[in-house]
Amino acid sequence: MMSHFAKKRDKKGFTLIELMIVVGIIAILAAIAIPQFQAYRVRGYNTAARSDVKNAYTAAQAYFSEHPGITVTTTELTAGGYVASANVTVAVGNGTQSGLSLTSSHSQGDKTYTINAAGTITP
User: Are 97 and 103 in contact, with CB atoms under 8 Å apart?
Assistant: First the structure.
């Protein structure tokens, strides 16, 4: 009967303590990684908004070159070649060529970007 118990001890595998340690380590790594991932996502959304305001500016300039003296609206931006990214809103503040002002933001981002007639983007 003793030999029967000795054979069971030779089984290979992990103990409960070893598994609990691995689960604990994974939980710590996840607690560190998830907030960083969220920050990367927000940064990506902000980049999309910044890119869209620059693309809208380029489309406005293209439209002004073909139709000088016209006041630009979002309709003219589309005619000038602007295609909005998903969840990005671009608004025309001042649509004249000399006072052009466009703003852009992503619905899940945390920044709003503005571009002026000279092509300067803020923030």
Answer: no
8 occurs within a structural domain: no
Token output for 76: 């003219």
Cβ count within 10 A of residue 47: 15
Q: What pTM, to 2 d.p., does this model score?
A: 0.72
pLDDT in tens, 21-40: 999 999 999 998 888 888 89
Helix (H, G, I), strand (E, B) or coil at 43: helix
Q: Could you list the residue range(s) of the whole structural domain that residue 44 is in?
A: 14-122
Give the torsion sign (CA, 47, 50, 54, 57). positive
Report yes or no on 47 lying in a domain.
yes
**Per the structure, how many domains does the chain have?**
1
- Is residue 9 domain-resident? no
List the alpha helices (DSSP H) in the chain. Answer: 2-9, 16-66, 74-79
Residue 6 within a domain = no
